[in-house]
Amino acid sequence: MDSDTYTGEEKLLAVLSHASAAFFPVLLPLVIYLLKRDSSFVRHHAKEALLFHLGFMVAEFISTLLVIIVIGWLLLPFFFVVYVICTVVAVVKSLRGEPYYYPVTTHLAQKI
C-alpha cells in the first residue's frame, strides 16, 4: 500500500507500538494489536514491536545472569544500543507509512 493511504490514527498507533519501548513495552503493542486487527499496517507494526520487545527482555535477562561471568557487562550495553537504534528506525518508518521489519524477529513475525 502507498504511504498516503494510511490515516494519521494508523500511523500514530504504529509509532506508539514501537515507542512503547520506554513504557509498557509488551502491554501496549499487544493491546494495539488486539484492538486494531482490521488495519494490516497497524497489525504489522504492533506485531513486530511486540516480538522485538519480548526478545529484548529475554536477551536482557540472560545478559543480567551472565554478569556473573563478566560477559554480561559487555552484552547489556550492546543490546541496549541495538534496541534504541532499531526502535528509532521503526518509529521513523512508521511515521513515513512504511513497513519495518526488525532484524532479529523478521522470520518469526512472518510465521505468526
UniProtKB/TrEMBL annotation:
Highest rank taxon of the organism: Bacteria
Record bears the keyword Transmembrane helix: yes
Subcellular location: Membrane
Pfam family, one: MamF_MmsF
Record membrane topology: Multi-pass membrane protein
This protein's UniProt keywords: Membrane, Transmembrane, Transmembrane helix
InterPro entries: MamF_MmsF
Ranges that cross the membrane: 12-35, 50-69, 75-92
Name of the molecule in the record: Orotate phosphoribosyltransferase
Organism: Novibacillus thermophilus
